[in-house]
Predict the structure.
Amino acid sequence: MSDPQVESPGTLAGVPDAFQRLWTPHRMVYIDGENKPADASASSCPFCTAPARSDADGLIVHRGETCFVVLNLYPYSPGHLLVCPYRHVSDYTETTPAERVELGELTVRAMTVLREVSHPAGFNLGINSGDVAGAGIAAHLHQHVVPRWLGDANFLPVIGRTKAMPQLLGDTREMVARAWR
């Protein structure tokens, strides 16, 4: 007699087995390249087009003089922010002194605001320069500010290629933008 909880070869998809599933079909659009620029031009760059939108539509939490802060559309954790120069530059060495100063100051402010609103235990900060370094949008420099909590990483991203996000992007943007003011 076979165990009804174990799928046998040749059974239809969806037949119950011993595993629970967390379906995240919305992640496939990212994996398939949604919102990735068609080319490296400023006209197709989401970091160049976001400032022309409203703050809510562009997920922008702060606009500075040379740089702005935007919520990551595909966050590693809730509150994952990106600090971007307005100028379409791909490499840190191409930034002006004013851009480098403001990028650093906005990174500090982002950490301060995130500590205030969501109390992370730490942060990952970083710039992935170039495709080979893991930059999803290599044509436009951006600094990641990723809040981290004890135990926030588990087997889901490693085995299931899934992240459990407990908060909607719009809610996160509003909370961070309100605290930024």
Summary: Residues 1-8 have pLDDT under 50 and may be disordered. The first helix runs from residue 26 to 31. The beta strands are 60-63, 67-71, 81-85, 122-126, 143-148. DSSP finds six helices and five strands in the chain.
